[in-house]
């Protein structure tokens, strides 16, 4: 299972690590920078001439640390401070001073050059306002530059909660995010701006999410396999569940076929398709393992008999909005005494 926190939830994880585990935030920042550099090497990013644009928050501190690590590896780095110097977090100010001690000064405007990589460390996951003015122009300029585009934690301008584009946003080829993939990275349109997403472990405490039901999560393949019940060898199809598929109006056999096939593939013992008579031949040909019961008109007695047979029902796929479909849906919602899955 993978958690998908938003920015506020992830910041709570940061704080729990810093205050509860006594891990200095600078340590987390250094780990984040190291993971970004490692990932860029693994993805074969050309790092000969790199532009790093930093904000004044901790996302910018990650950017300054990345610049130092790349410089020590021999890259030519150009660092732009996009935020206000007076608004710098303590960690970002310290990272900036460390970089200066290595002889690298930041600038306030992007110099004209042919960059091989452009790194976005402007806003991070805390952004909630519309990007406009100077910052909007800066992100558009970054998007127009040559070179691969890399976002640190999240592309600037993407809401970490909803994936909404807050005015404008950085378009990344890859995003290196930390501890967990943020919710806004998998919701569209934010996912289009993130490119390839890599969630890197840097030591942030996430077990507190176990107690927070409001934190979204997604299952991985291994989780789904563990959810499936054991299938004893001494068994038959009648003990693995009976699914009634109320699908497919006239001429909509494709949706009926695909949904019923999915029921078969996921391990249902018996699958019965309740569909318009016009779909019978097609479905019996494409899915001979399913039982097909068809209708020409609405017959509530027949439908309730089929519903009583089922352990679970699914409805809606290709069902349409006609009169018969309306009767079927009404009866299903009114009389079903088994779990029902409805297609949107």
Describe this structure in words.
- The chain has 344 residues and is an alpha/beta fold.
- Helix 10 (280-286) links the parallel strand 10 and strand 11 (291-295).
- 38% of the residues lie in helices and 18% in strands.
- It contains twelve helices and 13 strands.
- The strands form three sheets. A six-stranded parallel β-sheet has the order 3-2-4-5-6-7, with helices on one face. The protein has a five-stranded parallel β-sheet with strand order 11-10-9-12-13, sandwiched between helices. Strands 1-8 form a two-stranded antiparallel ribbon.
- The chain folds into two domains: 2-222, YjeF N-terminal domain (Rossmann fold); 237-342, 3-Layer(aba) Sandwich (UDP-N-acetylmuramoyl-L-alanine:D-glutamate ligase), CATH 3.40.1190.
Please write out the topology.
Elements: E1 2-4, H1 7-20, H2 25-42, E2 49-54, H3 58-73, E3 76-81, H4 90-101, E4 117-121, H5 133-144, E5 148-152, E6 174-178, H6 183-186, H7 190-194, E7 196-200, E8 216-218, H8 221-227, E9 242-246, H9 253-265, E10 270-276, H10 280-286, E11 291-295, H11 300-309, E12 312-315, H12 323-335, E13 340-342
Parallel strand pairs: 2-3, 2-4, 4-5, 5-6, 6-7, 9-10, 9-12, 10-11, 12-13
Antiparallel strand pairs: 1-8
Helix pairs in contact: 2-3, 3-4, 11-12
